[in-house]
Amino acid sequence: MIPSASTLKKLKDQAKKYTSAQIDTNLKKLPTKYYGNDPKAIFTSIDNRRDNTSKSEFETEKQFQERIEKENSLPIIGKISLDDIWSLQANGTRFEYSADTAEMNIYLDLGYDYIFFNEKNQKAISLSSVEINYGSYTASNSYGARTVVKSSDHERYAAIPYNYHEFPYVDAGSKNYIVLKISVGITEAIKTKNDMRVLLIAELIYPLISEKERYREATFSSPYTGLNLDRYIHINLNEIWIYNQKTGQIYSKIRKSVPVEASEKNTQ
């Protein structure tokens, strides 16, 4: 996928909203308009580094090991290294208020790309989706019928949390969530619901990253085509923060706890 000039400018502008600084987990309040670290920048940096992990025929084993150790000690982005703490904003989280209990119920979707990961019992949390190319063209079949096909290619970034079961979650077939609650008055809920976000505080774990491609072929009943490049960052969750992106207010820092059975929660 080769982005157009306008898309490249859009991607560059979008990257500016992220920070290359490590999160301070002792913070009482985040900066306003906080998005965390850029998943695309993290993935790209690690991917570029992996390209240099093969031993050259012109270097000794000792030289090779020294080079790898040096590269692993270098920051991934900014001053953040492999062993540091990362902040990743979750995408597509559902917030539902209960006036009866004065609580905001937060459903962090673990079902991203569920079919692909189900065989390994892995879950994935969507982080971002970037449209790379788009357009349309006229197609016809062997009978001469014509239709306009819309084409759109995407880069999709997601996190694979290997220890998701250490947080309150619901496992109900194709619907999987980490389910969180915070107490908030109805007036405040009405005012702030649309600005609430979820931040994953995490460490990277091996294999660090992975990816796969999916191609969608157009049909007459569904005239849409495109290539999806799914890119995954592998993590262990330390905490999950609920915060207000507009003001930076942190409502809650959720740490590891006992899993919740699917039958005990209603995720509908």
> How much helical structure, as a percent, in the residues?
10-25%
Principal-axes shape call: globular
The count of DSSP E runs of length 2 or more, i.e. the number of strands, is 10
What fraction strand? 35-45%
- What is the C-alpha radius of gyration, as a whole number of Å? 21 Å
| Average pLDDT level | 84
Compute the separation of the termini in Å.
37 Å
Largest β-sheet summary: 6 strands, mixed
How many helical stretches?
5
Task: List segments where confidence is low: pLDDT < 50 over at least 5 consecutive residues.
Answer: 259-268
Quick structural gist:
By secondary structure, this protein is of the alpha+beta class. The protein has 5 helices and 10 strands. Strands 1, 4, 5, 8, 9 and 10 form a 6-stranded mixed sheet that branches. It has a 4-stranded antiparallel sheet with strand order 2-3-7-6, with no helix packed on it.
List keywords for this structure.
alpha+beta; 268 residues; 18% helix; four-stranded antiparallel β-sheet; 5 helices; single chain; disordered C terminus
Write the layout of secondary structure elements.
Blueprint: H1 5-15, H2 39-50, H3 61-73, E1 86-89, E2 94-98, E3 103-109, H4 114-118, E4 125-140, E5 146-161, E6 169-172, E7 175-183, H5 186-192, E8 196-216, E9 224-244, E10 250-254
Parallel strand pairs: 5-9
Antiparallel strand pairs: 1-8, 2-3, 3-7, 4-5, 6-7, 8-9, 9-10
